[in-house]
Automatic annotation (TrEMBL):
GO terms for molecular function: symporter activity. Gene3D superfamilies: MFS general substrate transporter like domains (1.20.1250.20). Belongs to the sodium:galactoside symporter (TC 2.A.2) family. Keywords: Membrane, Transmembrane, Transmembrane helix. PANTHER family: MAJOR FACILITATOR SUPERFAMILY (MFS) PROFILE DOMAIN-CONTAINING PROTEIN (PTHR11328:SF24), MAJOR FACILITATOR SUPERFAMILY DOMAIN-CONTAINING PROTEIN (PTHR11328). Pfam families: MFS_2. SUPFAM superfamilies: MFS general substrate transporter. This is GPH family glycoside/pentoside/hexuronide:cation symporter. One of its GO terms (biological process) is carbohydrate transport. The chain crosses the membrane at residues 20-43, 49-68, 89-109, 115-135, 156-177, 189-209, 245-269, 281-299, 311-329, 335-359, 388-406, 426-445. GO terms for cellular component: plasma membrane. It comes from Acidovorax soli.
Length: 466
């Protein structure tokens, strides 16, 4: 349905330079996320030779800290006052430390005992995760305040998603190429990790340099005289009363769980089920991400004409069908795998753009309910759910490999292959199917968003510096 007749007067639009500069940040951040999602576990098990259970348990340590740091850092950014803005200041000071710890994750010393390997992975990954939160959360929160227009948010998200796609391509496709170019895999991962860390730090610095938050956003920051813990608790409870946000974050968390299962298991699927090599991964990932990239602005046009939740549901249906088909692919069927990945990619295009355009709308709804705009807390909770889903998926992949007696670098048993197929196809499809009813219940339409903006007196956007 259209709903264009219910729109308000068009507010000032973001410049192309601002949208492109903002998108650069996603290039660097998603490089790190993709590389770790697709290759970190297989690096630990097949290159660093860390037992899967040890690697999975060590990664879990960082995610336990995540149960605190995402909402806590969100609350802190909501109350930050600086001459560089509420969110931009974290990008300025976080770029270099993030680059350093991102590189350290891929530098596991050889010959470590299981205990030493556990400690190394737990410490380096926890440091990385902390700095990633301190940078990524403010970066995402900036988007909600750069524009308040329902459709302009989708446009900004489309550019940001294009940047994310480029970064995702680099992390999943270029990293294996860099690794193979080195004398050995361990050296290759260390050098590629250093290059990716440097690139991510530079990308974050570009956003800090080129994208400035609206001056009016400073005045909208909540000023809470209550003690810190009481303020955190009150803000958190207020956020959890926002029903549209809870529906969206629950659905997006299920989708993230499913897609991270695919990321974590796909390398095992290609090498052991398809009986290919690591050299096949870049080509297959190029197909998947190429389709996602082509579909991004097509999905933007769909969202301009439909409601956002309906477009998201349609994308999930495409991906779920493809994931079910993935389970039945047999050894040597690389053409069939490429076709199925293309179908999955069409659906993934919706996930790359739509939920990130929906989060700011739920923040506006929360502003109407609570009378204050707590952008950081919303993105903190969204990031928390996202990272919990990633963690659960990583632990599931490690656990299934362990339960099915996976042995690296040899032909696998039928039990191990069945586990790999299930993690790559059926389980992710089930996660996406469970998200659909939640999105069907999501209540914020284009017309409803117009009512929300009028209720909080937000009838026009503030100007910004670019």
């Amino acid at each position: 349905m259209s709903g264009h007749a219910t729109r308000q007067a068009t507010p000032p639009m973001l410049t192309l330079g601002t949208k492109l500069s903002y998108a650069v940040g996603n290039v660097g951040l998603q490089m790190l996320i993709a590389a770790m999602g697709f290759l970190l576990m297989i690096f630990y098990t097949d290159v660093a030779l860390v037992p899967p259970a040890v690697a999975g348990a060590a990664l879990l340590v960082g995610k336990v800290w995540d149960t605190i740091n995402d909402p806590l850092f969100g609350w802190v950014t909501d109350r930050t006052r600086s001459r560089w803005g509420r969110h931009r200041v974290y990008l300025i000071y976080g770029a270099i430390p993030l680059a350093v710890v991102a590189a350290a994750v891929w530098m596991v010393p050889p010959g470590l005992s299981p205990v030493a390997a556990f400690l190394w992975i737990a410490i380096t990954y926890t440091l990385f995760d902390t700095l990633m939160t301190l940078v990524q959360l403010p970066y995402q929160a900036m988007a909600a305040n750069l524009t308040r227009d329902y459709d302009e948010r989708t446009s900004l998200t489309a550019f940001a998603s294009l940047g994310a796609l480029i970064g995702f391509f680099a992390g999943s496709v270029l990293m294996p190429v860099l690794v193979r170019a080195a004398p050995d895999a361990r050296t290759g991962y260390a050098l590629a990790g250093a290059c990716f860390g440097l690139a991510a730090g530079m990308a974050v610095a570009v956003v800090a340099w080129r994208v400035h938050e609206p001056v009016a956003d400073e005045a909208a920051a909540p000023a809470d005289p209550a003690p810190a813990w009481d303020s955190v608790r009150r803000t958190l409870l207020g956020t959890l009363r926002n029903r549209p946000f809870l529906l969206l974050v629950s659905a997006a968390g299920l989708v993230r769980l499913g897609l991270t299962l695919v990321q974590g298991a796909l390398a095992y699927f290609v090498i052991y089920q398809l009986q290919g090599t690591q050299g096949d991964l870049p080509r297959l990932m190029a197909i998947l991400l190429g389709v996602v990239g082509v579909s991004l602005f097509a999905w933007k046009r769909v969202v301009d004409r439909w409601e956002k939740n309906r477009a998201y549901i349609l994308g999930l249906v495409f991906s779920a069908v493809g994931l079910v088909m993935l389970y039945w692919i047999q050894p040597g069927q690389q053409g069939m795998l490429a076709a199925v990945l293309a179908l999955i990619g069409i659906g993934m295009g919706a996930h790359w753009i739509v939920p990130y355009a929906m989060v700011p709308d739920t923040i506006d709804h929360g502003h109407m309910l609570a009378g204050e705009r707590t952008t950081g807390m919303y993105y903190g909770l969204y990031g928390l759910v996202d990272k919990i889903a990633r963690t659960v998926a990583t632990v599931v992949v490690a656990a299934v490999l362990d339960w099915t007696h996976y042995v690296p670098n040899v032909a696998q048993t039928e039990l191990a292959l069945q586990g790999i197929r299930t993690m790559t196809g059926l389980l992710p499809a089930l996660c996406l199917a469970f998200a659909i009813p939640l999105l069907m219940a999501y209540p914020i339409t284009r017309a409803r968003h117009g009512e929300i903006r009028r209720s909080v007196g937000d009838v026009r956007d503030s100007q910004f510096a670019s």
